């Protein structure tokens, strides 16, 4: 084997000349620099082994780096991310959401009442009442954003949501009036003269700022302070003045004509002034508009000549049974759609004319609506007898009331009021003078006798099993009525009311003869039957005798005993009494009134 030194290249150096006199002091020439010696070349087998080891090392490093990357990038949420102390790193979105929800369910702060302070006032708000929650999905989205970190943690704040309107309403209700009210800008009318109301800034709650404060401080465990902010009206004083000149004055300068296929409607300036709204909203912004409801009220008589009102389906009686009569569509002007164009016409310099389109309006109550009420059978009926013939004023008053009530429909859950249904029962309504009890004395009065109809109606509702709401028996007992379960009435102080506490409609029918009045109830039976049991009379008292001056106001009577008695209403179902209801009343003795002329002096 050749030695390593034998493989080095041979360098031949030039022969140095002997120094001469001229060369004295001149340094001798430096020998040339030799190239560095190369390490010996290893044998082929060793060289292959080194290459293999180096390659394996590189592969191992790459594999390790790849594994670390896969670990760091595993899941949707990067490693090292926490929310409210919960480690969500490496989890899929669904896993992270489930873990966060479980933590929130166990965190008492999420359900505890929120303490809020506004100036010197405090309020306690329930998170559920104001929609205050941690938005889990949005929080997980925030946690999933960003790059993973192998060496540090990243805390992500929870995303808080709140219903701004509910929060604002709840806080205002809890703390009452705070700050200084803003004076809203407006333009008002005195007759046809517009007047500017200039705005004035205030200081109070701003819903958005309130929401931001509550969301930021909710989970801190400390009371949340909500600031008051300056409330600047969106409409300035200058803009209010401009609205007076560009909108208010032109709008009432002359009538506006509305044309339609059924005729022409003239809207006078006074109607425009009543329906033109120029008032700032909560933010103090004025958006001029015509209020359709106010406009309809202002021009109702003229509209009635153009529009055809819809007719609801209704009940009638044929052959002694209820029958449904179909309704009819109506036609009218859609004032809500007309209002914007009407405002444009009223404030423009062009012709003050606008065209309206008539629209059809279906009945509010259809045949199907009435069919669903289950008015199919007579569930009760009750009759009382007149004390005189049908020609008497008292009997005529009873029939007049019966005519007004016939066909009345009481929907499920509604309460029927006799005073409310008939209104005042006076001469203008066809009622006449007949005996009434006033202050314990019988005397003529308009509408006398209607108490008999009231008693008949009360008993019909009583035996139909309907809920008694208000009734009052007479002060004296009259044997034409059942004791205890009878009722008087007097406008407007005494009323009779019952509630339809069934799931079906109740239709009232009335009928009369020359001797009696009958009231029947039509519906679907809830009870098999309703009956009454009476106790014996007790505490019986005799009537006193009273002499009154003879005259038109004196009505002679024979007197009636007084007593106390109970009556039980029994509700029968499936062959047994399912419910009992007790009524008790104490009747005063009716005096024996004698009408006599005053003795001469």
From TrEMBL:
Record-annotated membrane-spanning stretches: 51-73
Protein origin, superkingdom: Bacteria
Record region (Disordered): 1-47
InterPro entries the UniProt entry points to: Glycopeptide_resist_protein, Vancomycin_resist_VanW, YoaR-like_PG-bd
Residue ranges, compositional bias (Pro residues): 28-44
Domain YoaR-like putative peptidoglycan binding: 238-353
Keywords, comma-separated and alphabetical: Membrane, Transmembrane, Transmembrane helix
Name the record gives this protein: Vancomycin resistance protein YoaR
């Amino acid at each position: 084997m050749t030695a390593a030194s034998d493989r080095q290249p041979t360098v031949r150096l030039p022969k140095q000349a002997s120094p001469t006199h001229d060369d004295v002091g001149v340094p001798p020439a430096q020998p040339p620099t030799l190239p560095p010696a190369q390490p010996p070349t290893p044998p082929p087998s060793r060289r292959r082994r080194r290459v293999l080891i180096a390659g394996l090392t590189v592969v191992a490093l790459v594999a390790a780096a790849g594994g670390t990357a896969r670990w760091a990038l595993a899941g949707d949420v990067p490693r090292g991310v926490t929310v409210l102390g919960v480690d969500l790193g490496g989890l899929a979105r669904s896993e992270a959401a489930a873990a966060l929800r479980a933590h929130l369910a166990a965190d008492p702060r999420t359900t505890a009442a929120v303490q809020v302070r506004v100036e010197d006032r405090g309020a306690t708000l329930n998170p559920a009442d104001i929609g205050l929650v941690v938005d889990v999905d949005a929080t997980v989205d925030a946690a999933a954003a960003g790059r993973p970190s192998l060496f540090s943690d990243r805390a992500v704040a929870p995303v808080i949501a709140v219903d701004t309107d509910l929060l604002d309403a709840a806080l205002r209700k809890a703390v009452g009036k705070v700050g200084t009210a803003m004076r809203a800008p407006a333009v008002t009318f005195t007759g046809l003269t517009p007047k500017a109301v200039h705005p004035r800034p205030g200081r109070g709650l701003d819903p958005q700022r309130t929401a931001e404060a509550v969301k930021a401080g909710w989970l801190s465990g400390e009371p949340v302070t909500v600031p008051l902010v300056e409330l600047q009206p969106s409409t300035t004083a200058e803009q209010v003045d401009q609205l007076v000149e560009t909108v208010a004055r032109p709008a009432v300068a002359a009538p506006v004509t509305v044309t339609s296929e059924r005729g022409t409607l003239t809207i006078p300036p006074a109607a425009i002034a009543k329906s033109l709204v120029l008032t700032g909203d909560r933010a103090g912004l004025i958006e001029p508009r015509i209020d359709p409801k106010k406009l309809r009220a202002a021009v109702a008589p003229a509209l009635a000549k153009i529009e055809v009102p819809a007719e609801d389906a209704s009940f009638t009686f044929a052959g002694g049974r209820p029958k449904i009569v179909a309704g009819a569509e109506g036609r009218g002007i859609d004032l809500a759609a007309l209002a914007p164009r009407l405002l444009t016409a009223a404030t423009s310099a062009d012709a003050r004319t606008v065209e309206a389109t008539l629209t059809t309006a279906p009945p509010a109550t259809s045949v199907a609506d009435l069919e669903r009420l289950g008015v199919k059978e007579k569930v009760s009926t009750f009759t009382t007898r007149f004390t005189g013939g049908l020609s008497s004023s008292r009997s005529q008053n009873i029939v007049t009331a019966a005519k007004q009530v016939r066909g009345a429909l009481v929907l499920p859950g509604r309460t029927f009021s006799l005073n409310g249904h008939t209104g005042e029962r006076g001469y203008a309504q066809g009622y006449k003078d007949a005996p009434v009890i006033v202050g314990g004395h019988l005397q003529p009065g308009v509408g006398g006798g209607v108490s008999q109809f009231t008693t008949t109606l009360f008993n019909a509702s009583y035996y139909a099993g309907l809920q008694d709401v208000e009734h009052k028996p007479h002060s004296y007992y009259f044997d034409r009525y059942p004791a205890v379960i009878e009722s008087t009435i007097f406008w407007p102080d005494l009323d009779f009311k019952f509630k339809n506490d069934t799931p079906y409609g109740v239709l009232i029918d009335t009928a009369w003869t020359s001797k009696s009045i009958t009231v029947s109830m039509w519906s679907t039976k809830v009870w098999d039957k309703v009956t009454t049991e009476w106790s014996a009379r007790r505490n019986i008292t005799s009537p006193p005798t009273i002499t009154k001056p003879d005259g038109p106001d004196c009505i002679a009577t024979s007197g009636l005993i007084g007593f106390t008695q109970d009556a039980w209403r029994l509700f029968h179902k499936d062959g047994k009494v399912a419910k009992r209801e007790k009524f008790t009343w104490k009747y005063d003795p009716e005096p024996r009134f004698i009408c006599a002329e005053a003795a001469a002096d």
